[in-house]
Amino acid sequence: MKKRKDSKLGLVRFLWPGNMEVRDINSNIMKKIWFITGVSSGIGKILTETVIETGDFVIGTFRKQEQVDSFNKNNKGKGIAVLMDVQDEESVQNGVSMILKSFPKIDVLVNNAGIGFVGAVEEASIAEVSKIMDVNILGTLRVLKAVLPTMRAQKSGHIIQMSSHAGVKSFAGFGIYNASKFALEGYSEAMADELRPLGINVTLVELSPFRTKFAGSSLHEVVQEIEDYAATASKFRAILKERNGSQEGDPYKASLAIIDQVNTETPTLRLPLGKMALKTIEMKLNSVRCDIEIHRETAERVVYETS
């Protein structure tokens, strides 16, 4: 990487090999630098394209070198791709280290890389569960731990955690995936309180079903099915796959909403996107309220009496 001083503006511009400038030379304002994981398809791909359309700069991760090469060829001056597998600690550390040697800051981290999984809880093997958790939980933590020191040092940043309405309410046949997103929601809520005093925002994006490959070629399914779950988990799996391609969510509109959340002065912890997300989250809240009222007297009775 080279640095070049603009004599007119007195500004330093950072150049990636190939003279890809991160500063808009027609403006005295630095572009936001977004670091988005898992940009080869789905929401990650559309979000990357939309961020670039708005004029910001994207660093995106791919797991295949040919994808990296193609992205870099087609997005000179607009973005850069790096080879990274969030399941591999060394891969994450090397990728982030390369980024931080070449760029002055990371304004937005989007923890998007993840996988879906369907099957009854009992049907899922320990190996299958471990795979989902390694990607959806440990993968996000590996990236966070590599990026957060930089955000803390710059005393600014915004972390976008790509969650789901399935991170709030569970569904028969989705339990293991639910567990991974519940865990994401749990640590993100705590992390938001830890990072807010340091000038760093955290937002959980709770998606409805969107028209991506999630329920198609990207969906992981249990290998061993159990007949007793035919009317519950298996039915859910069939419906999920049947509706692939006709989901309500528009990835482009979701991307615009995420960008708006990053640019607002008052970002929220949660950003539900889609009518189904609103419906299912409200169902969960109503269910919890109902259980609280049913057991309120019991809950209040099981404490030590105070004098």
List the helices and strands and how they pair.
Elements: E1 2-6, E2 11-16, E3 20-21, E4 33-36, H1 42-54, E5 57-62, H2 65-74, E6 79-83, H3 89-102, E7 108-111, E8 116-118, H4 126-154, E9 157-164, H5 175-195, E10 200-207, E11 219-221, H6 233-242, H7 251-263, E12 270-273, H8 275-301
Parallel strand pairs: 4-5, 4-7, 5-6, 7-9, 8-11, 9-10, 10-12
Antiparallel strand pairs: 1-2, 2-3
Helix pairs in contact: 1-7, 3-4, 4-5
Describe the structure.
- This protein has helices spanning 42-54, 65-74, 89-102, 126-154, 175-195, 233-242, 251-263, 275-301, and strands spanning 2-6, 11-16, 20-21, 33-36, 57-62, 79-83, 108-111, 116-118, 157-164, 200-207, 219-221, 270-273.
- By secondary structure, the protein is α/β, with parallel strands linked by helices.
- The chain has a single domain (31-275), classed as Rossmann fold.
- Strands 6-5-4-7-9-10-12 form a seven-stranded parallel sheet, with helices on both faces. It has a three-stranded antiparallel sheet with strand order 1-2-3, with no helix packed on it.
- Helix 1 (42-54) crosses helix 7 (251-263).
- The protein is globular and about 60 Å long.
